Amino acid sequence: MDRAVKSMLEVTGLRKVYEDASRTVEAIRDVSFSVGQGELVCIVGPSGAGKTTLLKCIAGLLAPTSGGVILEGNPVNGPPPAMAVVFQEYGRSLFPWMTVHDNVALPLKQKKLAAERREELVRDALAAVDLSGVDGAYPWQLSGGMQQRVAIARAVAYEPHVLLMDEPFAAVDAQTRADLEDLIRVLWHRLRVTVLFVTHDIDESVYLGERVLVMSHAPTVIMEDVTIDLPDERTQLETRSMPRFGELRKHIYSQIQLAKQGWRPPSD
Amino acid sequence: MKDLMPSLPRRLAVTLALPVTLIAAWWITSADSQSFYFPPLQTILQTFGRLWFSPHALSDVGPSLWRFSVGYLAAAFLGIVIGIPVGASRNLRNVLEPVLEFLRAIPPPVLVPVLILFTGLGNEMKALVILFGCIWPVLLNTVAGVRALDEILGETVRSYRIGGLSRLWHFVLPGASPQIFTGLRQSLSIGIILMVISEMFAARDGIGFVLVQYQRTFAIPEMWSGIIVLGIIGIVLSLIFRAIEAWLLGWYHGLRQSQRAG
Q: Do B255 and A140 touch (CB under 8 A)?
């Protein structure tokens, strides 16, 4: 399977140290990886692995202490226009004073698109996440899963080149999570967008990803870059019962266990 | 939710039950009153009708309401405009806090003589007294509201590169508005009090002036009727305020309701 190998995202020697008056915490020691255009890459790691810190550095929301992020050849110094982020806490990332429609449309107003184009994008995005009927509702009138769909629709309408997702399904119930996982794969296939998906759920990372980056405990480095050689057509029922799924899952799980014990790969 | 709310007639009955009872009790207990300072309610209400439903009532109430509106709206505007940057910047807060605390502690009526020196006895003096008293709840609540803006929402706004005026209009103001309205509500009560007080010392017209005139000339039923008028003005302003708040903060009431429902 030959994918376009043009590099979309390059993370080089990323290091993040938090310093305050009393102590210094090295959250991320040295993380380097690259993501090709159109890839779906998952990042998985134990709690406290600095996954959210890593995502925020990539998103331009946090400045790394050293090392850098390059998006489509340009260094990331602040939130770039070609990126959209979906946070875990959907309730707090949607504007409660705006309807669903206005929530999705607001970032597009920033982009100074023509009203017609904007409406089209909003309509298509809400349809893509199966929420066509609720554009007049307020987010707090919707269920958790629907709210997260709105956040996803907002990101999709933005037409980003890279979609960053920070444990987006950690706060929804298992059934909804399964539906949303499938939704992500559908959107990814259709929009051909590059996706970086952070999760603590190993099964989810194997089910979704083409590659899984396993993080160590803080100070974080990449333990391993696992290629997921499962078929491209994935279903909850079939894929999760494949033997290969179990093997990959077990491998990543043991890596995580090593990470929890403080083991890390020898630095080259 | 709407089906569970009692019907309008029933709600009206509940709201009016206590006031009607108290008024009836006042009427009955004061009916045979011979006291000079506590005339029968009947007398007061007759005076009320005579005084306040006449054309010259407007020339008493009008100036007061005008001064109140100017002072209150100016305080609201300045409180919000100053409160937002102070709330947003820790440095600004640290620099300004001691001075703000000092100024806030000064009771506004105390400033009346000072303001008379600078601005005379006219409308400006009274509007300034009202402004000086009303600005603090608005300003301090605006600061609190801006500080309490949701962090995740702030990062969302940043990630979509929403900045400047857009950020102010779509994020900061709506986000802080519930808290700002708390301040505006407090200022409403303070403003009414100061409106009357500023007219009691040195004025030529207004409700406060008229009330003090009645007191000095021992026109007791008239004085009581003036007190009732003040109460009514307070209620009317409060109702107007609540209507505006319900319109602007409808989303917030809905949000809180859905959170309570769990």
A: yes
CB contact at 8 A, B233 and B69: no
* Per-range mean pLDDT, top range of B56-60, B104-108, B200-204: B104-108
Taking contacts as CB-CB distances below 8 angstroms, the residues of chain A near B258 are 140-141
pLDDT grade for B102, boundaries at 50, 70 and 90? confident
ipTM: 0.90
For β-strands A40-44 and A211-215, DSSP reports them as: parallel
Nearest alpha carbon to residue A113 among A60, A154, A157 = A157
Task: With beta carbons under 8 A apart, name residues in chain B contacting A60.
Answer: 159
Tell whether B101 lies on the interface with A, counting CB pairs under 8 A. no
Closest partner CB to B158 (pick from A79, A92, A109): A79
Q: What is the pTM of this model?
A: 0.87
Number of folded domains that form chain B? 1
8 A C-beta contact, residue A157 and residue A190: no
Judged by phi (left if over 0) then psi (alpha if -120 to 50, else beta), residue A83 lies in: beta
Residue B169 belongs to a domain: yes
Task: Give the CATH fold of the A39-63+78-215+223-259 domain.
Answer: Rossmann fold (3.40.50)
Name the CA radius of gyration of chain A, rounded.
Answer: 19
CB-based contact B160 A158, cutoff 8 Å? yes
Predicted local confidence at residue A47, as pLDDT: 75
pLDDT at A267: 61
Nearest to B161 among A81, A92, A138 (CB): A81
**Domain of B110?**
59-248
Q: Do the Cβ atoms of B202 and B116 come closer than 8 Å?
A: yes
* Alpha-carbon distance B69 to nearest alpha carbon in chain A (angstroms): 28
Task: Tell whether B255 lies on the interface with A, counting CB pairs under 8 A.
Answer: yes
User: How far is residue A212's CA from residue A202's CA, in Å, rounded to a whole number?
Assistant: 9
Q: Does B148 touch chain A (CB under 8 A)?
A: no
Q: What is the CATH number of the domain that holds B85?
A: 1.10.3720.10
- Flag whether residue B170 sits within 8 Å of chain A, measured between CB atoms: yes
